[in-house]
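Lab notebook: predicted structure, single chain.

Context: the supervisor wants predicted structures on file for every construct in the current expression panel, including those that have not yet been purified. This is the next one on the list. No modifications to the sequence; it matches the entry in the shared construct table.
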Amino acid sequence: MHRKLARAIFYAAMVVAACVLLPVSGSAPALTHSDLGPERDLSTFPFDAREKAQLRGDWWFYFGGRLTPQEAVAAAISNELDLLHVPDDWQEAETASDTNPYAHGTGTYVLNVTLPYSKGTPLAITFPRVADAYEVFWIPANDLTRANRIGGSGEMEGQIQVSLINQTYALDQIGEGYLVVQVRKELQSYGGILRTPIIADAAYLQSDAHLDRIIEGAIIGITLLVAALNLFLFVVYRKDPATLLLALVSFAFLLRSVILAGTLEMVFGPGIRPLRIRIEYADIILVAWAGYALQQALVWRRLSDLGGPLVTGVLAMLGGAIVLTAPLPFVTEQLFIIQMYCVIIFGLILRTSVRAITKRVTDAWFYTLGWFVPLLAGVNDIIVTNTYHGVYMANHAFVLFICAYSLKVSRRVTSAVSRAEVLDLERSNLQQLHQDALDTGSRDHLTGLLNRQAFDNEFSLAWREKDYSDQGISLVIFDIDHFKIVNDTYGHPAGDDVLRAVANLVQATNLRRADRVCRYGGEEFVMILPDTTCENAKVVAERMRNGIAALTTECTGNISLRVTASFGIACADPNSNLESRELLLRADEALYHAKSTGRNRSATYKQIIEEGAEASGDDFKAAS
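Prediction complete. Output recorded below exactly as produced.
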């Protein structure tokens, strides 16, 4: 049921969007008539009250050659010119042909205007958008032979250079005259005066332009800040793809803001306009696709449904490639396809949102309603683009959109990071508890050395690895001499102090990472020395024996004790047939030999064998 509802809403949105766009997407017939004829009497217009006079309506129009201002006015007066609605595109006019499908060439506009006769309020005229290049003249009605050039933008001859948008020129004329605008069209499918020219108080237009620049700068600054914030959030917490996609949407919208503000033309010159138009169209596709992927990540917190973003992403890449490589007139003529792509994307966003709402996903209503702000602004901009009338709202709407979503996502990321920190702390505590449990099972609680169970495990592992070493393995067993006397004379607390002191000294001895020291039992300790010969093991044992002999232990009850230790050493060569248990018995036998021959000394099992052989030889000689 929920899926059927989602499909129904999706298809309904598509139908509504098509009904809204189809009437305005096609180019309106260029030669039309309106209630406002090609005359404007502005002699009593309240310019001093900061009102704007919009020159919308019919103008005299000539296409096919560049008339001089005087020729154009003479043809208009004699009613030899057609009427063309301003603002509009002349592509669909009768001047188009099979050999010139986009109606490239030069057109001349003429409008009869009567300005106030008083110069009390300095006036100016603004041309928001003219494609591709243009030049403006004023011919006073009382002297049709004189043409005053007001201004212009772009190149009317030679290599085409396009005009800048929102250009304002001083209008020093008074009384009745003719406004003549020559337009050159060669780059785009649409051409002519595409936004209504405005006459108003010069100071008011200037302050209005400054305000527009401030707003544009604020939009660019806020967008840049939001993009950087979301990129930072993605670096901090990469598990939420919404931060990266929101940063991508912000950067794409930032590019759009820079383009519409005319910044690229101001920095690189008018020659960049063709490339700027291509980037603008490609950026629209990018914003639409990134918005769809963003909605997926916002609602589901992952790009779980890769089918939609993948297919639309491939279409976006193909569309972007065409926009960047195809002839510019073809690209601008296919704007309707880009608009329909945006409508389809919105339908997919709506379908995702309805599905999320029916599944009671957290914040699904917020993310769904949030899209209606840029959606309505986008529909408005599509209508404005196709009717050449109205105010663009997408920039302002998208600023609100990305700010609200960034605030929501930042809170989500902050909450997730806080939860992650708590989980990391709990994980660290669990790891510490686990390590403590392991230490409790493998460490001697008195000395901190490995206990007997740990010795068995470590010795078994080292014994298996000895065959892969160059020098085999050595085992050193030592115990504290006369330790029972220490316990009987000074008490067990003093004995514990001695054991701890010896253990600390052993741990401070410069041993290798692979060496192991264990408390074997009572006052007895054992060292496992992998890849060590008997000679080197003897050196280690002597160094440790001397250290113990020089050690003074401060015991409980203000007692200072010094003890000695005896060491037994046994070794096994690589690949020897000796059993590990036999090596342990040999080391123990060597220890017994060291204790029986005077204590505070070290003895090797090899030394016992050699002394036994010498004793047998002496007995044989005595018997002889």
